[in-house]
Amino acid sequence: MPDRRDRRPSRRRETAVPLSVADLDDIRITPSDTGLPGRAAGLTVGEFLATEPRLDEFWTPLLVLDDAALRANARAIQSWCDEHGLELMPHGKTTMAPALWWLQLDGGATGLTLATPGQVRTARRFGVASVMLANALVAPPALAWAAAELADPAFALRVWADSVATVNAMEAGLAGLDLPRPIDVLVELGAPGGRTGARTLDDARRVADRVAASPVLRLAGTAGYEGSLGHDRSSGAAAAVRGYLADLVRLHETVAGLAGGELLLSAGGSAYLDLVAEAFEAPAARAAGTRRVLRSGASLVHDNGFYRGISPIDDRLTPAMRGLARVVSHPEPGLALLDGGKRDFPYDEGLPVPLALDGASVTALNDQHTYLRAAPSGAVGPVDIAIGDVVELGLSHPCTAFDKRRLIPVVERFGSDRVVALVRTFF
């Protein structure tokens, strides 16, 4: 976890006093904070941690983080970016946890990526000075808020646009506002069947022309997301991602011809960052004035599922999250039911994996139950665990893990029972 120093932005127009990571220790724990011991209610986070709590006091089901693994992963992804000449602006929506944001910002990340205006506002509340909104900003109330925040000369905000209609909506929302300076816009390139983003290079170039002509926007670079084009390490997926990234670099060359000043070229989730680094070696990507930015957000936490199977730097990363669930039923031979389910653990990119039960597997999740089955031989697994036993689960996809808890315990390292922090999320 990061040092708890005060980090207050140099100038703000909000009436609320900006918060630092240290302020999170002053949050008061309530009985509705799921999973925390009953004795914690009424104490602040700092007061509770001063009592040296142990993990076996906490109630299942539970998500647990490994402090040593988080720190090592933060160093690993930052070192990898440094080796490849890339900046890191990790996607903060993965955790929505300011303590974890600052762990990476203190470690060399040059800013934060976020997905919604509300997330950007939370980041500003915790003193984050450089934010990329990997989305369009078109809601008038959010545009008005952003315009006010830009009065802080130390605040850098960059948003995405993928159509002329998006630019028109931004201009309409900004009409009549006191805008201290233009809003930086990155042209987003997509691909047929993908997520957002202009579907062709010609469409994207028209967006770039429109942004360049705007009196309230500044053409500030090119961005995209390659992760929706593949879901494995097959040759077909790699070819699709490489082709898309080559087009992104070509678009950036066009944008550089239209815009002056510093430009960003950004791509990269946590699955194909090696292919991003490869594509960003092209001369157009390395032109003077271009900052090449990776947005990998899941690498900080990693996992025992999807990212473990696809990340090109799995050998440098350690899964830093686990689930804990308790056996509550043995309704038939070879089957145990645990007290956690879809409400507690991520499942959209693979089911949880029992970590210390050879041959056992999770076969399904209900809202509040996990189905743990023995191997076909029945020699190991659920038949060997009793009602009341706690099962450790490896989890897949951190992006849908953190939203399920307000306060998440952090142990020194997995295998240790000592809780050293409570990570506060802001979903």
UniProtKB/TrEMBL annotation:
InterPro entries with a match to the protein in the record: D-amino_acid_metab_enzyme, D-ser_dehydrat-like_dom, D-ser_dehydrat-like_sf, PLP-binding_barrel
Gene3D superfamilies: Alanine racemase, D-serine dehydratase-like domain
Residues of the D-serine dehydratase-like domain: 320-412
SUPFAM superfamilies xrefs: PLP-binding barrel
Pfam families referenced in this protein's UniProt entry, alphabetically: D-ser_dehydrat
Leader peptide range in chain numbering: none
Domain of life where this protein originates: Bacteria
Protein's recorded name: D-serine dehydratase-like domain-containing protein
Species of the source: Agromyces intestinalis
